[in-house]
Amino acid sequence: MIEIALCPAAALQEGGLAHRFKVLYNGEHAVAFVLRVNGAVHAYLNRCSHVPVELDWNYGEFLDDSGSMIVCATHGASYNATNGHCIGGPCDGKPLIGLHVFRAQ
Fold first, then answer.
1. pLDDT per residue over 25-68, tens digit each?
2. What pLDDT, on the 0 to 100 scale, is given for residue 5?
3. β-pairing verdict for 28-37 and 40-45
4. CATH (one of 3.90.650.10, 2.102.10.10, 2.30.42.10, 3.30.420.40) for 18-99
5. Sheet holding 78-80, edge to edge
């Protein structure tokens, strides 16, 4: 496993902007993001499970007004921000691709 430093933990404000970063996923360069929801950090590929387009409305903006759902800016697919599960719209039960993140000591 390759470990990379993403950002200081304090940079991720509860329900705020996500930090975008690049990863290699299945041999392809892809964009991912990390955000803080319910006090925990969650990371996903920046790829809607409905159609593989980036999710953010504006750079780093993924969450709805409640701060609990990730909503695809293109077609409105909605995902639980804490586990990536599809909760509505055209994602048809398919979750986001989650990534493992941890806090460095």
1. 999 999 999 999 988 889 999 999 999 899 999 999 999 999 99
2. 63
3. antiparallel
4. 2.102.10.10
5. 69-71, 78-80, 86-88
